[in-house]
Amino acid sequence: MLDVVIIGAGTAGMSAGIYAARSGKTALILEKKAYGGQIINTPNVENYPGIKSISGFAFATGLYEQVTALGVKVAFEEAVSIEDCGDYKVVNTNENSYETKAVIIATGAKNRQLGIDREEQFTGAGISYCATCDGAFFRGRDVAVIGGGNTAVEDALFLSNYCNKVYVILRRDVFRADPKDVEILKDKENVEFIYNSNIAKIHGENTVDGIELRDKEGKETFLKVQGIFVAIGQVPDNQSFQSLISIDDAGYVIASEDCKTNVEGIYTAGDCRTKSVRQLTTAASDGAVAALAACERINKN
Fold first, then answer.
1. Model pLDDT for residues 171-188, shown as the tens digit of each residue
2. For residue 43, is pLDDT > 80?
3. Which of these is catalytic: 3, 134, 237, 286?
4. What CA–CA distances, in Å, run from 69 to 74, 174, 269, 296?
């Protein structure tokens, strides 16, 4: 029987693997796609303490090499369910079943995409889903923020400190964000609002150099921008476990900073849990907290 099974090989999951292994526990990481999570699409990471600059792919690869060197096994299988058998759990994948003393769910969350042509092509080459991660790279440039919720307003406020011009594009005629924050944003001289519009087309060859907007009446407008920051929400990947653990209306695993779920012996870490800040640093922190909590419970038992 394994000590810990970790579901997800992103920053949170691999950090959990490191702490489990260093605590002398046997650990297995299950990943349905590729290691790294969302960060592998980020060209430059410059906000992780102790690392001045690194590509997202290099960061994830270094983490993967570190965790596997410690003896943690990584199986590229999709976890489809968890069974609670009291003192132990069973994690079922599309290929195998694994008995374990503890489970850490670190499935992450994927950014909700615009769903338009060439979006994937320009991701990391003008399209970003994280203003705090990539905003500094657009210093002095013109950018567009897509969305009308709290994240979009926060992103626009952040970008207004770096960028020459920030267009905030809403598909409706009102914001969903907190009114106080919207008023602060409206006071920014370099921020312009465009209502009732969606992106119809992205212009550019190797990088973004403009977008074509279409309003609700079908009128099209071209904006010359070098960056597009998409802030229309995230989609967590926890549906397979919702019959066992508590999940909120948005699909996130309900857990506080101790990373404990409502089921004894099952923990969660990273972007898939209820939290207000989702960054590399907080994902790594969650992984450490969840793994150490799991190890403490194993030792007691």
1. 999 998 889 999 999 999
2. no
3. 134
4. 11, 52, 22, 23
